[in-house]
Amino acid sequence: MKNVRLLGYIFILPAVLAMIMVHIIPMGWGILISFKDLTIRNIRNWQEAPWCGLKNYIKAFNPVTTVGQRFLRSLQNILVYGVVTISVGFFIALGVALLLNKPFVGRTLVRGIILIPYITPDSVAYNFWRFIFQSRIGILNEMLLRIGIIQEPIMWLVGRNTIWAVIIASIWKGWPLTSLMLLAGLQTIPMELYEAAKIDGASAWQCFKYITLSYLKPVIKTIMIMNILWNFHAYNQFVVLFGENVGIHAEVPNTLIMREAFENYNYGQGSALSVILMLMMLTITIVYLYVFRAQRDE
Amino acid sequence: MKKRLILLTVIFALTIFSVVSGTEILFWAMGNAPAALHNEWMQQKAAEFEAKTGIKVVFEEIGWGDGPRIMNAIITGEGAHVFQLGTTWNPEYAATDGLVEIDIDEFGGADKFFAANLESTTLNGKYYGVPWFAETRILFYNTEMFEAAGVRPPQTYEQLLEVGQKLIDVHGTGRAIATAGTGAWDLIHNWAIILWAHGGDMLNADNTQAIFNSAAGVKAMNYWVSLVDKGLASKACAEYNQPQADAAFISGETAMAFMGPWNIADIAHDNPGLKYAVVEPPAGPAGRAAFSGGSNLAIRNNASKEEIEAAKEWVKFLTSDEVLADYTKNLSMMLPANKEALNDPYYDTETWRTFIKTLGYATAYPPIPEWGAIEGIIQTNFGNVLTDYVDGRFNVITSSKSYLDAAVAEVNAVLNQ
Fold first, then answer.
1. Could you please report the per-residue DSSP string of A110-131?
2. Which of B349, B165, B191, B182 is nearest to B256 (CA)?
């Protein structure tokens, strides 16, 4: 028995070592330099970069400093972005999954087609949206003008509409995967349950609420936690749509981190912001899992 | 005496040849030309170079977003021995202490290069790169649209507004000039030339304090916004990147645009029938001003002596008159930073002469390691001004001034670190 256990550890050792090399050590290094004043001038001798204690962390939350102002604003922006993108995307995905769960001719083909936005590379998809949102020649403004919703072109790529532009594009890109996962969940629900409920006189809403949603709960839980993490780490959509200078209305933590670390070469500050973001995500995940576990135990 | 000198030179050349012969170096450059053409040219030149020196050069194309990769090479010693650096990057990378200090006399001497490009290779008065190719922006104008409006190309910024008004009277709102907006990574260059022409500057003489929130800075920022506000440029320009602004001119949509030398090839390719001419950037109260950009070649110093010597030979080869002229006129579509390479008859046209004249007085940004961060700060606040304009919150008295003040405070904090 002891030998078998030892053999198991030997088998997982390469994977554990790989994890340590590519995950744990870089993460540890990142945490370490977040306490240092590491800049372009001392990057070659990073060990000798001066320690600065919690300075980088304090700056991040100090609204008087420029970094602090930007970081707090970026958290506000990502919160709006995440809440709207996840919730609207989820309802679209659920609607489509319910439709695709019904038998109809060409269902397999449609299931494949809906995945197109998801499988399109970010750079292609968001560049495509960049064209759609062009104020002068973009088809969105063209359509809105034609049907009379707007009287003059809207600026989507500059100003306060930027956050809505990126939300629309992200919903389009993200809902198909959610839909596919929900569809997989729907297909595990035994049809007999619906038949029995109908015999007992249950309404369509009651069937949905007590059977469909109950069975989908584990899938929804996974989807939600994945979406929260993905959306809070959003970067590509912002940079492809708006360029490196995303503007105050669309600044999110990752665009700020990239700028601090790799444009301004404030590696210490960039690392501190990354660590803060990681801790936030970790907290959200723990709370989320705790709440779900508590509900399950009930 | 003469014989002895020749003998010494031959011995020196043979020594260098024997030391570096057989060495292999890696060269990273950005996509300065279509990839297939670029690779083919590099391989051909690398073969010529190898036949001549015995040094093997492996070329790899990298992107403009690969700055961190270059930084990794400098830190770890893994990666290219020679790499292309944008002019504003050179002092930043030199500050890492990871670049070979250059004896410019080895590369033909300081007078051989455009002054601003050479300045961009410096840090604290020492050279850490060799200027490769250069660019500046001048005013392109559509001669047919100008004729139809009965106007002549503007010589001053005030005239540009007057000419622009006449152009839109004839051709319609937004069609006088195409300008770059928040989508442009190089938005700052457009503002900088107006700032300088109005007597302003970025930093004080010893580069210890930002001074671009002066009256000239505010006027320059307001001027850029006024091009859209007065209807000379389309409101959509506020979101444009530079290629979008270029495309608006090249397609014949607008009558003017500030563009670079590479756009000559774009016009020949995309709209060969376009009737256009060029003039120097307009003058402000302090005269004409232009931005000097381009790229330099730098050598990593954490390499063996042989590799560093081989890298120097490759840089000398790439910046030699004929090779450089061949590269700039057929591939990068820029100007050679080596002035002697301009003797190529290709550059003997009115358009190129205007570029060359402009480059002669063009200004480089201060060669300090913090410039990248400073540029980002200015760019962000320029974007904020345009965002305010789009959001309807722009105030000609307060907006530019307050954002420039904020940018100056931030830049001073960076400089004082």
1. HHHHTTHHHHS-HHHHHHHHHH
2. B165
Task: Give B65-85 pLDDT, tens digit per residue.
Answer: 899 899 999 988 999 999 999
Please indicate if any CB of chain B lies within 8 Å of the CB of A248: yes
- For chain B, the domain total comes to 2
pLDDT (tens digit per residue) in B387-410 = 999 999 999 999 999 999 999 999
Residue A157 counted as domain residue: yes
SS3 A249: coil
Residue A158 has φ and ψ, to the nearest 5°, of -135, 145
User: What's the first-to-final CA gap in chain A, in angstroms?
Assistant: 37
Quote the number of domains for chain A.
Answer: 1
Residues B244 and B350 in one domain: no
- Same domain for B90 and B56: yes
pTM of the model: 0.86
A128 in a structural domain: yes
Domain residue limits at A221: 65-297
Residue B138, classed as helix, strand or coil, is strand
ipTM for the assembly: 0.80
- In chain B, residues with a C-beta closer than 8 Å to the C-beta of A249 are 387
One-letter amino acid of B370: E
CA atoms of A20 and A271, how far apart (whole Å):
19
What CATH number did the domain enclosing B49 receive? 3.40.190.10
- Chain A CB contacts of B185 below 8 Å: 243-245
B301 and B209 housed in the same domain: no
- Token pair belonging to A205: 């809403």
